Amino acid sequence: MKFLIVYFSLLFFICGFVAVHGKILRQRFVLQDAPYTRLCGSKSILTVNGKFPGPTIYARVGDTVIVDVINRASENITIHWHGVKQPRNPWSDGPAYITQCPIRPGTNFSQRIVLSDEIGTLWWHAHIEWFRATVYGALVVLPNLGDQYPFPKPAAEIPIILGEWWNSDIREVLREGLQSGSDFNASNAFLINGQPGDLYPCSNSDTFKVKVDSGKTYLLRMINNVMNNIMFFKIANHNLTVVGSDAAYTKPFTAEYVAISPGQTIDVLFVANQQPSHYYMASRPHNVAGNFANTTTTAILEYTGNYTAPSSPLLPTLPDFADEVPLQFHSTAAKLSDRGSPH
Question: Which residues form the Plastocyanin-like domain (predicted)?
Answer without folding.
Answer: 33-143, 157-306
